[in-house]
Design goal:
mainly beta, six-stranded antiparallel β-sheet
Length: 132
């Protein structure tokens, strides 16, 4: 039972990671975020954004995603806030979905900084983030 619980937690973390997949577009084309189209931008062919939820300084990590699904670290961007940890949590310290959300209509990425009670907003262009 313990092995199954560990596998289920790992699978849940990977599903959460895959939910944040973005395929930034080349000029004149549309990309995808979670299967949904968003406006054109320049940058990586595919990008995946995750947040660290680090209590010493929350960050958003950008990975390039290859056609075969392989991830390669690109860069880490500070949110300017602090991550939080829910008592008793093991994998998902916020115990929630949506703590990192993409607004495709405005090409904005929102990151919750749970310990500092703030939300950081980033402009997204390809795999590049600019804190607004």
């Amino acid at each position: 039972m313990r092995t199954f619980t560990g596998l289920a937690a790992t699978a849940g973390a990977l599903v959460g990671l895959s939910a944040l997949v973005a395929a930034p577009a080349t000029a004149g084309a549309q990309g995808l975020l979670g299967g949904q189209p968003f406006g054109a931008g320049a940058g990586a062919d595919h990008a995946v954004f995750v947040q660290t939820d680090n209590t010493a300084g929350n960050t958003v990590v950008a990975y390039a995603r290859a056609a075969d699904g392989a991830l390669t670290w690109e860069h880490t961007t500070p949110t300017g806030g602090l991550g939080g940890v829910l008592n008793g949590s093991v994998v998902d310290h916020l115990a929630s979905q949506g703590s990192l959300t993409y607004d495709r209509d405005h090409a904005l990425l929102y990151a919750v900084n749970a310990a500092s009670n703030t939300v950081s907003v980033f402009s997204v262009r390809g795999d590049q983030l600019t804190l607004r």
